[in-house]
Design brief:
Helix content: 25-40%
Radius of gyration: 28 Å
Strand content: 15-25%
CATH superfamily of one domain: P-loop containing nucleotide triphosphate hydrolases
Strand order of the largest sheet: 5-6-7-3-8-9
Number of strands: 18
Structural class: alpha/beta
Distance between the termini: 34 Å
CATH class of one domain: Alpha Beta
Largest sheet: 6 strands, mixed
CATH topology of one domain: Rossmann fold
Length: about 525
């Protein structure tokens, strides 16, 4: 795969500027860069969902491409899981097509050559999908990915977010593509599945491009790292895994800063000569004109310094002091229609200004519990009680609060704040300058996550519910955003598998589902549940 002179802009935002890269057919490439650099956009260009302004990406002809997006969207939600997995290999359709072609060949003598070519093509496809052994391959994949057999007869619509991600990953692998595009593939994987996927990808015969903030995962799989530089809009490919990249990139930055310092000194000298002799005559005038041309060339080819993330101090307090007990859950029971009970006889109390973490494996009801608390779902039994001074705000994994056709600034607009205040607050969530005027629909998943979290904070609620708030955030951004919530003077109930984010915020207690057991926060306990595959 080769990218040549890639240029792409969204409105005023330049994404790539004469960017180039080349990778081999068997390369396993990690793609890194800050949120909004153009990582997911590159996948959409490869998939021809976005058209470049100029330049091209060349791929060997007829390569089958498989894509796992960050945000899994399943179109036919009424189909059961096993049928959905089977559909990844279009064997039934190919067999029907082959049968039809044989019938045509028996009846039609004039186009025999054309029909026979079609038959050969369909047979090649069936062989590619190993149609005699396909169902056994799928059953082995289901077992290796630790997909519970009870899920296979459930409709896609009734799966949790984590379950959907795992099923979508299994569907992708079973489809047997020659090029894999994986966007944050480990977000919802338990340890057993993660270990299997890691080994599977190590032995994968084909090209893999992985966007991931999971350093351990990248180190285990990749032999190259593609760095997309948001500051300079270009792409650099480094040999080695992520740790190798970090060392090489640091040396590259040091060298680059020396070049920038030398460049700035040269530009200053040229400017001084131009200013000194521009109003002179004769030799000095010609010297000024010569240096002015040279200065212009230097400015055109000026190397831009990398922009680091700047944490802006945030001081937003809840609109009012909350109740001493903001929330009580009393013996609630819940199940979706035609499915087993997910939450059974659950009771607990959350205290004012507490940081409260919910943990449990995929499908035990973590997100469901949050949706019951906000009233999107109703318990079958029991009740949910709020203190009379409780103000609620909710961050959903799907970032449902954002209006796609409005700008970043319009999405947070409020009479409670001046535009200057809003721009300052947006800066604390890493939206600088003209970022405020980007339309939400062109933002990366990480940028949308930051904006959603900003919008939640601006509501000044005293009880925040956060559902996997870090799924789309790079480590540096996680740390900055985590500090905002650590310092927030309200109650936080959160679902998160991200240990560093949990540690930054400072959790007081943990609720473990499905047992309903509550313990004081302990890093050792959290690590234990990670190893036991209980954290999703």
């Amino acid at each position: 795969m080769k990218g040549t002179n890639l240029n792409l802009s969204f409105n005023l935002e330049r994404i790539y500027e004469n960017a180039n890269f080349q990778i081999n057919d068997d390369d396993k490439v990690g793609i890194v860069g800050v949120n909004g650099a153009g990582k997911t956009t590159l996948f959409k260009v490869i998939l021809k969902e976005i058209e470049l302004d100029s330049g091209k990406i060349s791929i060997s002809s007829n390569k089958r491409i498989g894509y796992l997006p960050q945000e899994v969207i399943m179109k036919d939600k009424e189909i059961i899981v096993f049928d959905y997995l089977l559909s990844a290999r279009p064997i039934k359709q190919l067999e029907k097509e082959l049968e039809s072609l044989y019938e045509q060949a028996a009846l039609n003598n004039s186009n025999q050559s054309k029909i026979l070519k079609k038959i050969a093509k369909v047979q090649n496809s069936l062989e590619y999908y190993d149609y005699y052994n396909a169902e056994n391959i799928l059953l082995e994949l289901i077992s290796n990915m630790d997909i519970d057999s009870s899920l296979l007869d459930i409709k896609l619509n009734n799966l949790s977010g984590g379950q959907k991600s795992k099923i979508a990953f299994a569907h992708l692998l079973y489809s047997n593509p020659e090029i894999l595009l994986l966007d944050e593939p480990t977000n919802h994987l338990d340890q057993t599945t993660r270990d299997y996927i890691t080994n599977y990808l190590k032995g994968y015969k084909g090209t893999i491009l992985i966007i991931s903030h999971d350093i351990e995962f990248l180190n285990a799989i990749t032999n190259k790292i593609m760095f997309i530089d948001k500051a300079n809009k270009n792409i650099t490919v480094y040999n080695g895994n992520y740790n190798d990249f970090v060392q090489k990139h640091e040396r590259h930055k040091e060298f680059k800063e020396r070049l920038i310092k030398k460049q700035e000194d040269e530009i200053k000298k040229l400017r001084d000569i131009v200013l000194l002799y521009s109003n002179s005559s004769g030799k000095r005038k010609r010297m000024a004109q010569s240096r002015e041309k040279l200065l212009s060339k230097k400015l055109e080819s000026k190397i831009v310094s990398d922009k680091g993330l700047k944490g802006v101090k945030l001081n937003i307090k809840p609109l009012r002091e909350g109740s001493k007990i903001p929330l009580k859950i009393n013996n609630i029971k819940f199940n979706y229609d035609d499915s087993k009970t997910i939450i059974n006889d659950l009771s607990f109390i959350v205290n004012s200004k507490e940081k409260f973490l919910i943990v449990g494996e995929n499908g035990v009801g973590k997100t469901t519990l949050l949706k019951l608390i906000i009233g999107e779902l109703k318990p079958k039994e029991g009740n949910i009680w709020f203190g009379d001074k409780t103000d609620l705000a909710y961050y959903a994994q799907e970032q449902e609060l954002l209006e796609q056709d409005k700008t970043v600034l319009e999405n947070v607009n409020s009479e409670k704040y001046s535009e200057k205040e809003l721009r300052t607050i947006l800066g604390s969530f890493l939206f600088y300058g003209d970022d405020a005027f980007k339309k939400v629909k062109i933002l990366s998943p990480g940028e949308r996550a930051r904006l959603s979290l900003c919008k939640i904070m601006l509501q000044k609620a005293n009880l925040l519910l956060l559902d996997e708030a870090t799924n789309h955030l790079d480590p540096d951004t996680q740390k900055i955003i985590g500090e905002h919530f650590k310092n927030y003077e309200g109650t936080i109930i959160m679902v998160s598998h991200n240990m560093s984010f949990v540690e930054t915020i400072g959790i007081d207690r943990m609720l473990i589902l499905p047992s309903g057991k509550i313990t004081n926060y302990s890093k050792e306990v959290l690590e234990y549940y990670n190893k036991m595959n209980i954290i999703s």
